[in-house]
Amino acid sequence: MAAGCSRAAAGGTAAPAPAPPPAAAADVAFMRGMIEHHAQAVLMAVWAPSHGASAPVRELCARIGVSQRDEIAAMERWLADRGLAAPAVDTATGRMMAGAGGMAGMSGMGADTLMPGMLTEAQLDRLDAARGPAFDRLFLRFMIQHHAGALVMVQRLVNAPGAARDGFVFQFASDVNAGQSAEIDRMRRMLAALTLDEGNP
Q1: Where are the alpha helices (DSSP H) in the chain?
Q2: Domain ranges of the chain
Q3: What does residue 89 show for φ and ψ, rounded to 5 degrees?
Q4: Which residues contact 188 (CB under 8 A, 6 or more apart)?
Q5: Fewer CB near the last or first residue (10 Å), C or N of the chain?
């Protein structure tokens, strides 16, 4: 037996990687939903340079864009490893594309059908129309709302029976909770520091 194992090792034939355990339905729903949730954050963040955002807000948006794209890629890999479809996202723009795995979507829906924290079409239109200091204030308000929704999604996952027992899902959800909580605190401080005219939105 030992000799046979040694020959296999010497021959350089690697054993196939073990298949990942079956995914809990709540884990799959969380991953797919969070991909769409993150995509909307990217969509909001990419507007900063063209909408006259201040340097601090542009820096924040750049950080959000990088982190959310990296996390989307990680969630897509987790789903792909299990032979599961992911929502089709253009990570450069944050736009959802026609494709498999879509869930709530990001347009043409009312607030009652969106995932927690997701902006409505009216809110996205309002942000897209804003420029300069008005964009800064709206972006911070809306991204605080958006991040708070992600925390709700994490809490719902943790509370779901049998969910978040997969090591990656648990660690990912924990990282989202910690990272977005910290960013909410930072954005609240930034919002408080803004000195906009009373009449600005």
Answers
A1: 2-10, 25-45, 55-81, 121-129, 133-159, 167-193
A2: 23-193
A3: -125, 135
A4: 144
A5: N
Quickly state the pLDDT bin for 60 (edges 50, 70, 90).
Answer: very high
CB atoms near residue 160 (< 10 Å): 15
In this predicted model, what pLDDT tens digit does every residue of 130-179 receive, in sequence order?
999 999 999 999 999 999 999 999 999 999 999 999 999 999 999 999 99
Class of domain 23-193: mainly alpha
Angle separating helix axes 55-81 and 25-45, nearest 10 degrees: 150
58: closest CA among 68, 70, 44, 69?
44
Q: Which two tokens stand for residue 114?
A: 């969106």
Name the burial class of residue 105, with classes exposed (0-12), middle (13-18) and buried (19+) by CB atoms within 10 angstroms of its CB. Answer: middle
